[in-house]
Amino acid sequence: MSHPQASYPGWMPPHSVIHVGDVVMYIPRRPMFAQSSASNGGNPATYARPCIVIDINPVNTQLTVAPLCGARRLSDGTWALMVEDWWHPTEFANTGVQIPRDGLGRQPITLTYNPFVAKPNFMPLFKPCYMWVGDAGEFVPILQAPHLPWANNYLRIDAQQLGVVQQWWRYWAHHNPPTY
Predict the structure, then answer these.
(1) Which of 78, 136, 137, 154 has the most neighbouring CB atoms within 10 Å?
(2) Where are the alpha helices (DSSP H) in 63-153?
(3) What single string gives the DSSP state of each residue in 27-68?
């Protein structure tokens, strides 16, 4: 299965294999992610979670990542609502994983997994989740890129779906931008 690569005017160190659209494991540090994600404590994550590489910027020497956050099931069987504006439901194509609800009626952002690539040991199992679309995400120094566990085409977002994410950034920038 071939995944179209998102195009970008970027540079990565020669030893890096990460591209825009790839999934890496990273510990998001922005308090906004925790405060808006229905987390139990409202504190930033203390463990690595799957994040989508949204941009690679050679000028600022940084990657931009958007975290995925698992939907939290409540005792009544429904899903805890995140700040719906900024967390967009995702679909893991062809996996049968339930798509979490979205009170705004948006189509889910589709992530594609390649069943012909072995699941990396560090990747969690697929579960209902949301993707951050409230703004450009979190900036990661580009020199960290070679040290981030990378899903190696097991899971990724294609260029068309990446465009959908960027459309939502622009929308929320004008209608309900997150604070930092």
Answers:
(1) 137
(2) none
(3) ----HHHHHHTT-SS-PPPSS-EEEEEEEEETTTTEEEEEEE
